[in-house]
Write a structure and sequence with these properties.
Elements lengths: L1 H16 L4 E10 L10 E5 L3 E4 L5 E7 L7 E6 L6 E5 L5 E2 L2 E3 L9 E5 L2 E4 L7 E5 H7 L4 H4 L7 E5 L8 E5 L12 E4 L2 E2 L10 E3 L13 E7 L2 H4 L10 E6 L5 E16 L12 E2 L2 E2 L28 E13 L3 E13 L7 E14 L4 E15 L2 E3 L5 H6 L38 H7 L1 E20 L2 E20 L10 E23 L6 E25 L10 E26 L3 E12 L8 E11 L14 E15 L10 E3 L22 E3 L2 E2 L7 E14 L4 E20 L8 E25 L2 E18 L5 E6 L3 E6 L6 E7 L7 E2 L2 E2 H4 L18 E9 L5 E11 L3 E11 L2 E4 H9 L11 E2 L12 E2 L2 H4 L14 E3 L2 E13 L2 H7 L3 E9 L3 E2 L20 E2 L6 E11 L1
Amino acid sequence: MKKTLLLILFAILPYLIHAQQVFKITGKVTDSKTNAPLIGANVLLKPTLLGAASDLDGSYIIYVPTSMVKGEFTLEVSYLGYQKVSVPITLTGDMVQNFALREDVLQMQTVVVTGMGVEIEKQKLGVTIGNVSSDAVTNSKALDVISAIQGKVSNVEITSTSGEPGASTYIRVRGANSITGGTQPLIVVDGSPINNSEIGTGVGGVTQMNRASDINPKDIESIDVLKGAAAAALYGSRAQNGVILIKTKSGKPGRAKLSYEVAYTFDEVTQVQPLQKIYGQGNNGVSSKTAVATWGAAIPAGTPIYDHERDMFKTGHTLDNSFTLSGGNEWTTYYLSVGRVGVDGTIKGKSSYDRNSVRVKASQRINEEINVTGNIQFVNVNSERVQRGSNVSGLLLGAWRTPPDFDNSVYLDPVTGFHRSYRMQNPTTLKASRGYDNPFFVVNEHVNDSKVNRTFGNIRLDYDPFDWLNVSYTLGHDYSMDERKTVLPPSSSAAPTGQVTTERLMNQETDGNFIITAKQAFEFAEMKATLMLGQNMNERKYNYFGTVGNDMAVYSFHQLDNTASYAPDEYESIIRSESYFGQLTLELYNQLFLTAALRNDGSSTFGVSKKRHWYPKVSAAWEFTKLDFFSGISNWLNFGKLRFAYGEAGQEPPVYSTITAFGSSTAAFGDGWGASLTSNAYGFGGFYTSGGKGQDKILPQRSKEFEVGFDLGILQERIGLEFTYYNSKTTDAIYSLPLAPSTGYTSQVQNAGTIQNTGIEIGINAQPVNIPGFKWDLNLLYARNRSEVLELPGTEYVGLGGFTSANGAVYKGFPVPVIRGYDYVRFGRGIVYNGVDIDKTYSGWKPGDLYIHTTGYPVQDPQIRIIGDPNPDWTGSIRTTFTLFDQVELSALFDIKQGGDMWNGTLGALVYFGTAQETADRGAKVVFEGKGPGAGKEVVKDQAYYQGVGSSFVGPSSANMEDGSYVKLREIAIGYTLRNDFIKTWTGIGAIDIRLTARNLHTWTKYKGIDPETNLTGGSNLRGLDYFNNPQTRTIILSLRFNY
């Protein structure tokens, strides 16, 4: 009851705050062609800050205190996707002003955020900024905001690590700009940066989460993507990878608005690895229940066969509830959001994700000069995750290596109750490795829990002493605590005696922005000028504390006290920075738009030789169709703009790289192989000197980028075309170089590398049909990026990690990254094999042809080479929307990636172990194409072949390199909006939105693995490796939204 009264009070509070004599401006906002109401249009009375949002029938009301009625006013209305309209008015009493808006197919009047709170119309930009609207985010029905923008911004690659609930996302904007520093862009919410770290992701262990997943997508007003240094220079040494600016919804003056949405989701895994179901456990055709592999005899008829491809998966379910309340008046606005997401994943057993969030955003005008805005979100996330990847306790590693006639579901021995697997089918001891864990044991007995509590937001004070001057201060804070527990019960292959690990990860960021903005108009050249000056103070803290306990006394008691020995590990880091920045924008003759900006950064991560660094930016945009010359051809060329921009941005060096640090005597936890511990000397504990020598002259990495382009509106704005060419060069790229053993150290970080990215981006917005009752909108995106390492002094290559057989690396003259490993002996490489120069000895070959040994088989080249490029040749998307009578909407989004190599290590391992579908042809005869002494010889594809050169598990890595191209039906939806005066009168419900949505419904690809979009290593530069990662999912969502 108390909660209900508080809610009612919150709703009516704005109307009790400021009662005085007022004039009333009323009217309706509609579509100029269909006359349909436009809901949520912004109506502002300038130069005041008074305004309102249009209602469910398009109506609005603005109350103007008579004390403010002085002189002329301008009534301005804006609505996303429509052209802005301004009308001069004189207030002498109550008045009515209606608006009929025209669609802005080109979206040139869309207001975008360019950084530090600066908002500007897209037509005045000298850079290209990707913009995603609130409707595009919410209608995607994605559970996190990053996944919601997949395929909607050109040259922004977004890949989910897996289809598990809450899985992290890989983001890369305009290629890789660093060697070892990662690709994640800076994320800023309502003017304050937030933590989007992904801690603990590797080639093994569980799937971790990005913290951007804590944001409720239904709270999003808009998302703007600053793609490169030319656009993001105002964020200095944190903006090398681009910036994603998220603006959350606010309350609008007008009556209270209430919305409730419920969505129910069905999830299913997409592709799985096909397995053979003919042969059983054993070797060389002889059955054996103790064999590691499945090379035994054919399984006798009538023997039960088990579907290990899919027996670990089920249909997942999600229930998503959200509630919002917003409103206000000319003095106070408020927005309240409550969300609850509960996910039961597609993996049988412990696979879940629950997110509870509350956001409150309010503003209060103290007087005509001072306004205060507060914005805070609390989120609680609980998740149960599953081991995957290169990991003997990994789910699919054990499941897919199991012979087809072994029943994994009976994971506890009926007699002893001990964990059983196909490698130990009748266990007699508890504390012994099973080789690979039974997957049902993994999902039912293992514990991989995470509990996150997070609070973030900001408070902003605006002071407007004059109509041309604004002074603001924004203080933002982001705090999160992630408490993790990992339990490997006794008999787990990674920890046979049992292991309990507890971890606490604290991230905290405080950010303060002080900004002065002055605007002035001049008669000369019809000039309008805006000058912004500011200072930023930022502090980031990270604290890690973990304890691992080994040798559990009681099987099911998951506490550290239940272990015989345990050791702690603790780490803390602090980064502090201070920055100054300024920006000047000029508008001349309403057609030439100039911008110049400069930022100066100082950071505790910078070397002592140069503690401060400058980041400049300039841009120009010319709307040339404003010239009289173009008035005669305006029927086919309505809008034309040329633009140019140059800017610099950076990336801070790794924390504490300026000093030689000490490390504890415990190693990191959580990769699925169990914690690797180094015994403390004599049992006393302590620290040891790090192998990395400090570099006190370290500099931030720096990217210098220029871009040019044009925007055109054709055929009375039925078609909009955007084209951009960019060239970005990163210097002082940071990586570690080896040191001579005589120094007492193993390596030292250096500023040494140079990387170049060049590319083009093309966007087409079109409205092929717009007639009464029917509208067709079409959006096409295309992007191509070419990356090359120009300089890499001091080393042949920089390794990025991976596997012995295939790993990521950076080489001079190649893109970032490439995949390196072993290949077959091939012609055209100058190879001398067994003392024979094969190129000179044999004729008729073409470069790349296989060398065929006297045995008739190809052979492995002992030299490690570059065997693949995981970077796409180009990316693109097709988005189409059909609207009928402003009530029915049918939309689809196709996401395209052409090119990009994948190492299918999963298939390579399964071929070696004899469970892959490909091994069902064992005993088949084949002649390998190539040249050499064994060319033309018929040979048998037997166990020796598949456990040799026929598999990348022990043979050539290139044996399982595949093309990762795909076309994904990323989104398809049909929605119906019901508006009925009778229902509104009797229930208060102004609109009901019913929507059926499917995500990742189908993928067209030649890739044989679980999904060409799989990403084992999260947000690092390393990509293109697939090794027993958990699959992606397709999703069907039915949603129902009520607007009151």
